[in-house]
Automatic annotation (TrEMBL):
SMART domains: C2 (SM00239), PLCXc (SM00148), PLCYc (SM00149). GO terms for molecular function: phosphatidylinositol-4,5-bisphosphate phospholipase C activity. Its cofactor is Ca(2+). This is Phosphoinositide phospholipase C. Transmembrane segments: none annotated. It comes from Perilla frutescens var. hirtella (Perilla citriodora). It is an enzyme of class 3 (hydrolase). Pfam families: C2, EF-hand_like, PI-PLC-X, PI-PLC-Y. GO terms for biological process: lipid catabolic process; phosphatidylinositol-mediated signaling; release of sequestered calcium ion into cytosol; response to stress. Its EC number is 3.1.4.11.
């Protein structure tokens, strides 16, 4: 980076700004002094730093030496260890992340599916809004590559009624063939994770087309399809048991009704022979008729049975000892239900699956607060993966946990009653379990990843950071640093403390914005990290764009401590 930068204000006038070099914060200088000798941090010094500051208790001298050797290109002055500049660059390097990638999948994976939060998509085939965007297999592929494990397909007859399309019904969305989506799922299901993929079907088909779908699914997935038969499971298998398997979930088929009364033709029923000269009158089948028209081969593919059944919320949330199932509620239904049935929902989700989906008026494919559903045990919190914004950033954060495999073990508070036999209530007054102290030292990388006039036409940017918690209501908060004017490398050096009552459900939200006096502040990066998996100590935190794609260079230097 050059030492000065010029901005053209008008034809005859230019402004020049001095560009500060990236310099280690005072805290980093103090730590280097403590863990070095005569300006050199050797492998033993670095091992002590890793153990005592970074909480990497098992670090060895050999591992510390390997870190020094891997970053020799950053260290120009000492062969046997880091100087201050080298140490500072190491702290800001990709080799010092806020989550430990080497942990991989480390949650227990042998519990029933109902014991996990599962990365879930809503209308997974849509490329944009809910009313007029194209339907495609591309967003399905993208979701699977990101680790999404539940794909939703709305299946409808095509225009000639002889094949099956995927589309958002009764809208202007353009369809995509079901078979194309199924093949793309098979080819991409286990690229990001080997744990099971669930396909939830919203079925608007005749029995004839249901049979056709059963044939498509069977031929496409073959042996990787988990299909235990037509009866409800007594308990869900585990993600470990279902590794590299595909599972179908939908309502068991009932009569296909085009309206309240439908005429049923000969291909749908085995009619008794009739001796009348003019043939029998066509029989009207009403919604309350006992006769069932269904494709048995389709029913047998359904491993996770869905449906609300009769009655109201109390009946929907019944827990049966001999069967498990999936219940779907809209975000509005859930918010209304938790006021009266909050504990019943938590109890229901200890054995059964709860899927929550966006309310119907979210035509722009926006999303909702997932913590309301997660804190009541809902496993499948269905999101529009193209609905970029803060809610989706929190979703991304949750599923960075457990190696990004798409399954995150629910905390014990949601799975078992407490010492007094009570189930968890996220809105109850709870004691503080721990306090997360976050130091926001500084940031860098915008100069390389953005045009120099991206944030401000006439001067360098004025950055500030927002840091906070997404969690149960009592833990949820956002705080803000001061704004630093005209600086591509802001050094805020500010400390924030977050008392946490339910750290198991807490996510650390981080955003950077550029202050704009006359217009809306500019977005400059974000990330969200599961608090339970934060690496302690001083860490380089990479930021992502609105869509969740990591920037090449933009990072914050931060410190995480539990006090």
């Amino acid at each position: 980076m050059s030492s000065k930068q010029t901005y053209r204000v008008c034809f005859c006038f230019r402004r020049r700004f001095r560009l500060a070099a990236s310099e280690a914060p005072a805290d980093v200088k103090d730590i280097f002094t403590r863990y070095s000798d005569n300006g050199v941090m050797d492998a033993e010094h670095l091992r002590r730093f890793l153990a005592e500051v970074q909480d990497q208790k098992a670090a060895t001298v050999d591992q510390a030496q390997a870190i020094i050797d891997s970053l020799k290109h950053l260290n120009l002055f000492h062969r046997r260890g880091f100087n201050l500049e080298g140490f500072f660059k190491y702290l800001f390097a990709d080799a010092n992340p806020p989550l430990d990638a080497q942990l991989g999948v480390h949650h227990e994976m042998s519990a029933p599916l109902s014991h996990y939060f599962i990365y879930t998509g809503h209308n997974s085939y849509l490329t944009g809004n809910q009313l007029s965007s194209d339907c495609s297999d591309v967003p399905i592929i993208n979701a699977l590559h990101r680790g999404v494990r539940v794909i939703e397909l709305d299946i409808w007859p095509n225009s000639t009624g002889d094949n099956v399309n995927v589309l958002h019904g009764r809208t202007l969305t353009t369809p995509v063939e079901l078979i194309k989506c199924l093949k793309s799922i098979k080819e991409n299901a286990f690229v990001a994770s080997e744990y099971p993929v669930v396909i939830t079907l919203e079925d608007h088909l005749t029995p004839v087309l249901q049979a056709k779908v059963a044939e498509m699914i069977t031929q496409t997935f073959g042996d990787i399809l988990f299909a235990p038969g037509s009866e409800c499971l007594k308990e869900f298998p585990s993600p470990e048991f279902l590794k590299k398997r595909v599972i179908i979930s939908t309502k068991p088929p009932k009569e296909y009704l085009k309206a309240k009364d439908v005429k049923v033709n000969e291909s749908d029923l085995n009619k008794e022979k009739d001796d009348e000269a003019w043939g029998s009158e066509p029989k009207n089948y009403k919604s309350n008729d006992k006769a069932q028209i269904e494709a048995p081969e389709y029913r047998q593919l359904i491993a996770i049975h869905a449906g609300k059944g009769k009655g109201g919320m109390k009946d929907w949330l019944k827990v049966y000892p001999d069967k498990v199932r999936r219940l779907s509620l809209s975000e509005q239904e859930l918010e209304k239900a938790i006021t009266e049935y909050g504990k019943d929902i938590v109890r229901f989700t200890q054995r059964n699956l709860l899927r929550v989906y966006p309310k119907g008026i979210r035509f722009d494919s926006s999303n909702y607060n997932p913590l309301i559903a997660w804190s009541h045990g809902a496993q499948m919190v269905a999101f529009n993966m193209q609905g970029y914004g803060r809610s989706l950033w929190v979703m991304h954060g949750m599923f960075r946990a457990n190696g990004g495999c798409g399954y995150v073990k629910k905390p014990d508070i949601l799975l078992k009653p407490d010492a007094y036999g009570e189930v968890f209530d996220p809105n109850a007054s709870l004691p503080v379990k721990t306090t997360l102290r976050v130091t926001v030292y500084m940031g860098e990388g915008w100069y390389y990843d953005f045009r120099h006039t991206h944030f401000d036409t006439y001067s360098p940017p004025d950055f500030y950071a927002r840091v906070g918690i997404a969690g149960v209501p009592a833990d949820t908060v956002m705080k803000k640093t001061k704004t630093l004017e005209d600086n591509w490398i802001p050094t805020w050096d500010e400390v924030f403390e977050f008392p946490l009552r339910v750290p198991e459900l807490a996510l650390l939200r981080i955003e950077v914005h550029e202050y704009d006096m006359s217009e809306k502040d500019d977005f400059a990066g974000q990330t969200c990290l599961p608090v339970a998996e934060l690496c302690k100590g001083i860490r380089a935190v990479p930021l992502h764009n609105r869509k969740g794609v990591k920037y090449n260079n933009v990072k914050l230097l931060m410190r995480f401590e539990f006090v």
